[in-house]
């Protein structure tokens, strides 16, 4: 992954971030030419196709019409929710400047949504709930600031693909045509520990090196669970007024930026690992059996702030994309547990305790409180397996 740091910021956003998505969410299906007819580029080795994309001249800007599809949530996964463009899928437009700022606008009968980003912050505005979700991006380190970024060499890309091939099956660069542009499409699928994740695909403009389509598939599905693709695209200067758009003044603001970890005597909570050491650092009993639904316990780590009230515990079972992650923290004095709006999630019975469950085609999340401790369990597994894992946390 070292060579990713050598690519310019806009290209990192446009290309490398997309290929990171498919490397993290990967099953095997045939690669086809998406977007209908049109010319296709000549066959080319994958490493060469990636190198040419990353070394292509930066476009002055990008304007495109896009289609977003979301089949992640099966029927009944959310209670009484009409949804929004983010939940149900939509059509829309995207504008991206040559300095990495951008705006993605989605429009659907279920409601509109808008995503804007720059070098410091991402905003997701959901018009259905009039809510602005904000996430502050990590600051660049002083050593990276001002550095001249150079594209990776062909040898570096080849080495990266060789390492990736140890964990995933990677297709050749398949000539295709997307949004009327000659493109290359690559498919990535896990060799093991893939959970419910099937394959993922990425297509990019063969000349401009700009991603045109990214899609994620669940195991056994021939249609994508999530897909974002361009249907029409143009390259040229983009006005700041197209990307510097703010949510309405009265929108509810939800800050999703994780709190900065505090430290005591120079020791960060993240430095405290191992069941015995972490148990001494928290006031509640940690439920961390040696194995969970057949998966061995891998790590136990202290997370959160430096004060006792904000400390939590992260326990990981299994490896890779098939791992199960459990977050535990004490219920506060007011009886507030997970502190999340669970009304839209179906209830589930867990041996006398009522929890709430979010089931998707790519995995399941179970939230519940038991004997003064709140739990959030997540894994790329069916609901029955997630519920069995939750019942075993005692």
Kindly, what is the distance between the CA atoms of the first and last residues, rounded to a whole number of angstroms? 39 Å
By DSSP, the count of extended strands is 21
Name of the CATH homologous superfamily of the largest domain: Lipoprotein localisation LolA/LolB/LppX
Over all CA atoms, what is the radius of gyration?
Answer: 22 Å
Looking at the overall shape, the CATH architecture of the largest domain is Clam
Order of helices and strands: HHEHEEEEEHEEEEEEHEHEEEEEEEEH
**What's the level 1 CATH class of the largest domain?**
Mainly Beta
Mean pLDDT: 83
**Largest pleated sheet:** 13 strands, mixed
Structure description:
With 394 residues, the chain is an alpha+beta fold. The protein has seven helices and 21 strands. The strands form two sheets. Strands 1, 2, 3, 4, 5, 6, 7, 8, 9, 10, 11, 12 and 13 form a 13-stranded mixed β-sheet that branches. It has an eight-stranded antiparallel β-sheet with strand order 14-15-16-17-21-20-19-18. Mean pLDDT is 83; it is low at 1-35.
């Amino acid at each position: 992954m070292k060579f990713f740091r050598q690519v310019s910021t806009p290209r990192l956003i446009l290309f490398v971030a997309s290929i990171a998505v498919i490397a993290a969410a990967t099953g095997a299906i045939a690669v086809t030419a998406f977007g209908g007819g049109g010319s296709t580029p000549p066959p080319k080795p994958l490493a060469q196709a990636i190198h040419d994309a990353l070394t292509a001249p930066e476009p002055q800007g990008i304007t495109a019409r896009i289609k977003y599809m979301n089949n992640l949530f099966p029927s009944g996964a959310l209670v009484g929710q009409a949804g929004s463009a983010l939940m149900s899928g939509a059509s829309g437009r995207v504008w991206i400047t040559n300095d990495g700022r951008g705006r993605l606008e989605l429009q659907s009968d279920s409601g509109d949504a808008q995503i804007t980003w720059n070098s410091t912050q991402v905003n997701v505005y959901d018009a259905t709930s009039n809510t602005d979700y904000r996430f502050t991006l990590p600051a660049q380190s002083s050593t990276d600031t001002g550095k001249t970024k150079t594209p990776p060499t062909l040898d570096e890309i080849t080495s990266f693909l060789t390492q990736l091939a140890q964990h995933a099956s990677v297709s050749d660069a398949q000539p295709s045509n997307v949004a009327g542009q000659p493109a290359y499409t690559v498919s990535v699928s896990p060799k093991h520990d893939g959970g419910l994740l099937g394959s993922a695909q990425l297509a990019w403009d063969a000349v401009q090196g700009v991603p045109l389509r990214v899609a994620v598939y669940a195991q056994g599905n021939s249609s994508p669970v999530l897909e974002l693709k361009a249907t029409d695209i143009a390259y040229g200067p983009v006005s700041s007024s197209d990307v510097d758009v703010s949510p309405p003044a009265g929108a509810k603001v939800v800050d999703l930026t994780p709190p900065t970890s505090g430290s005591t005597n120079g020791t960060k909570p993240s430095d405290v690992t191992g069941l015995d050491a972490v148990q001494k650092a928290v006031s509640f009993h940690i439920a961390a059996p040696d194995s969970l639904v057949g998966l061995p316990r891998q790590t136990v780590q202290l997370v959160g702030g430096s004060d006792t009230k904000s400390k939590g515990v992260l326990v990981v079972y299994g490896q890779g994309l098939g791992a199960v992650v459990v977050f535990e923290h004490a219920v506060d004095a007011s009886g507030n547990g997970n502190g999340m709006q669970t009304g839209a999630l179906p209830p589930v019975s867990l041996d006398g305790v009522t929890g709430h469950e979010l089931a998707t085609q790519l995995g399941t999340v179970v939230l519940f409180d038991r004997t003064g401790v709140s739990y959030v369990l997540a894994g790329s597994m069916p609901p029955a397996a997630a519920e069995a894992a939750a019942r075993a946390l005692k």
